[in-house]
């Protein structure tokens, strides 16, 4: 991961001093992981990158950053202590996935907002040429305004989902339907996209405080110099162009950023720092996959925030056993009560002897998806998971849970054609999963898993998308050029801070 000869693709800025860039994500793995990859990507193109993290996430992500710095890249982590006690948050929680219940989400959000003056002080003491800020941290776009530093919003999701969300907030077509299951057309998109109220993010539901979200969206639009998106042209080119027109700001589609990890230790320990236990677990999972035939395994993981009720976990586990397929199933850690209890894991193991590997808490997801034994991915359709599957060329079995995940499903299943739906017609409310009941039964799970693994057309489409993703980040590819374009935008006369 050596720097390229120039900080921009065209080479006309090679003589310029390296642009100093800060990257600051919302403190949870689904945001911090791609932002860490993004910082290393820009450092590999000659930027001087500082990744701003809470201490807990700094410990998780420090290994790849340290190796990149040792290899000669200008990259470092600046750790901030989350002002938890000032926000009434106890327990030492510095990452959203560590919160034991939703009641603590409010104090956690307050604590994250209290990072604003700390970040502003950092900018004043060590000014930068650009800030790439998480779109859900609007205060990062206005910190230290006297410095005149250009800010670029990292969207956290793709332009398709952003376009859908924007249309729902602006036009509210969901308010005109009679039931939660009545389809409606999302207006103003390049394609005919239909949704139901049962598949919408909470912020866009009738009765929600959508005006606050709309105002926040417009505030970020006004403050940003452009959008940085973990996506690539062949996945959603029409929506990259659509979002540029809708917001009047340039989109820099630079993904899939997970491809910056290569095939070494950065992939094996991604998200778990240099923990010895993580290395041992990665070796165990990959060693098990080595014993399975090509494309015979379904990988099952729902990210760091999903908390299924026990009844749904049971249906999922027994459906995997009934499918007859090999599977790697990642369930939550022991501190997350809504996840699979050990007795259920034993039941599933007994029902699928030799075919199932249950992993507690964490797995080396990027490495697993790249393994030749993996033939499908059951996922919640968080954007990081969607782009990782696309980069690996693995078909998706989409099971959205909350937020914009149903919109991502509509892209993958309905437009890209690289996935199939598990059949979830409604999601869960984060923190209220215990009351959500069963959304998908074991018979459906078994049927969809068998069908996806046997679908040659689906496999071919996903494989072709993987090839396009890899070409996008190579020299001359669309994402490679987008990185160069953003660096040139930072370096253009009058843009750099004084």
Automatic annotation (TrEMBL):
Pfam families: UDPGT (PF00201). One of its GO terms (molecular function) is glycosyltransferase activity. It is an enzyme of class 2 (transferase). This is Glycosyltransferase. Belongs to the UDP-glycosyltransferase family. It comes from Urochloa decumbens. Keywords: Glycosyltransferase, Transferase. Its EC number is 2.4.1.-. PANTHER family: GLYCOSYLTRANSFERASE.
